[in-house]
Amino acid sequence: MSTTAPTPSPAPAPSPVTLALSSAPGQPEPTPALAQLYRGFEQELLVPLWTEIGDLMPPHPRSKASPHCWRWERLLALAAQAGELVPVGRGGERRAIALANPSLGGRPYATPTLWAAIQYLMPGENAPEHRHSQHAFRFVLEGEGVWTVVGGDAVRMSRGDFLPQAGWNWHAHHNAATQPMAWLDGLDIPFAVHTESQFFEFGRHQLSAAEQATPTRSRAERLWGHPGLRPVSQPEPQPASPLLAYRWADTDRALADQLALEAEGHPGTLSPGHAAVRFTNPTNGRDVLPTLRTEMHRLRAGAATRRWREVGSSVYQVFEGGGRVTVGDTAWTVARGDLVVVPSWVPFHAQADDTTGMDLFRFGDAPIYEALHLQRTAVDA
Ligand code: GTQ
Ligand code: FE2
After folding, report:
1. What is the pLDDT of residue 207?
2. Which ligand is nearest the CA of 173, by number?
3. Which ligand is nearest to the CA of 92?
4. Distance 316 CA to ligand 2 centre (A)
């Protein structure tokens, strides 16, 4: 007969609700009767509004996230080390290293809604096929040689290219070059965590030879990548862009044209010396992904953005040039590749170097707020 030591009965769990008596304005004086009332609330798991209202209903958003800047040089060095030490394959899925906002408890969240990561693939490596409900994109700061295969369509990735990848599409990446390659991933992973809406499936371990091809132009670009021209066979609006690559040559020309038009005295720029374009879904003219807004901004040498704040958060990456970026009370001198996060309702301002100007890639969660009619913008200066 086996004997087991009697297990001591566990101590009663402390109530998750603890209410503090307060003598704040408008609050009753602490008395034994009031203390007893509050103990009654705790025991029944009840919380009165009057002790919480300042936190629950502030006059404007007060983000838990902090403004922060990550240096590309450091990210790239660590990603290269990971390339030597950590294999990429089924299970871990991706050699992606995420920015963790210093005020979000060490979770891999750049902001409360946005994931931003550097992904790194060694020559000849394959990141296995999978799909997830989270929406994603790649933005390429430098390098080439990786193809991302979305729904069997191999899409080249080169410097300055923007590659959206709507949720639930199968995707894999392979490096067909002799050099390692790094790029920026943006996803709505934290948003999906908070909304408890995640789905994920593993795909095949090996792509077919045809899918491992390295065409210059993807099928998606051949069908959808013609400015102002929609295939008549595709009349239905789609919730996310079917165009799988937005090439740097096109983005660059659009920005250069805005600044040239301004110099000739014509409208086009967002504010003096500040050109900006948004990546859009060619089937409906709206944001490229249902949850993510993505833009490229160009500041002429010495020019500055307006100072503005918005509901929702953003991540900026310096693509070229440099300058000074201010978020709330913090300012950084930034150079190519550096990343800055802007929490909700914290003012943003950028000023380009006098000699180089500055190109800034931006992504944010604005479509979520717009869909719910929660967006607000204030231009401070
Ligand atoms: O490349 O498929 O940074 O699924 C995070 C999740 C990249 C990807 C990330 C992902 C991917
Ligand atoms: Fe993925």
Report:
1. 86
2. 1
3. 1
4. 21
Task: Report the alpha-carbon angle 366-369-370, nearest 5.
Answer: 80
Give the pLDDT of residue 51: 87
The parts of the chain modelled with pLDDT lower than 50 are 1-5
Residues contacting ligand 1 via CB (< 6 Å): 94, 96, 117, 119, 132, 136, 171, 185, 187
Rounded to whole angstroms, the Cα distance separating 11 from 346 reads 45
What are the start-end ranges of the E strands in 68-170? Answer: 68-70, 96-98, 115-121, 126-132, 136-139, 144-150, 153-158, 162-165
Cα of 185 vs centre of ligand 1, distance in Å, is: 7
pLDDT at 381: 76
Spatial CB neighbours of 265, under 8 Å, sequence gap ≥ 6: none
- The tens digit of pLDDT for each residue in 311-338 reads 999 999 999 999 999 999 999 999 999 9
Q: Is the dihedral of CA 86, 89, 95, 101 positive or negative?
A: negative
Three-class secondary structure of residue 1 per DSSP: coil
Single-letter amino acid, residue 248: W
Which of 75, 93, 95, 201 to mutate to test ligand 1, by most ligand atoms within 8 A of the CB atom? Answer: 93
What 3-state class would DSSP assign to 252?
helix
Residue range 80-96, pLDDT digits in tens: 999 999 999 888 899 99
Helical ranges in 182-236 per DSSP H: 189-195, 219-224
CA distance between the termini of the chain:
81
- Cα of 44 from ligand 1 centre, angstroms: 43
Q: Which residues contact 56 (CB under 8 A, 6 or more apart)?
A: 49
Q: What pLDDT does residue 3 have?
A: 44
DSSP per-residue string spanning 309-325: EESS-EEEEEEEE-EEE
The atom of ligand 1 lying closest to the CA of 96 is: 3
Rounded to the nearest 10°, the torsion over CA 177, 362, 131, 211 is -30
Residue 185 structure tokens: 């991933």
Domains of the chain from N-terminus onward:
18-56 (no CATH), 68-379 (2.60.120.10)
Atom of ligand 1 nearest to the CA of 98: 3
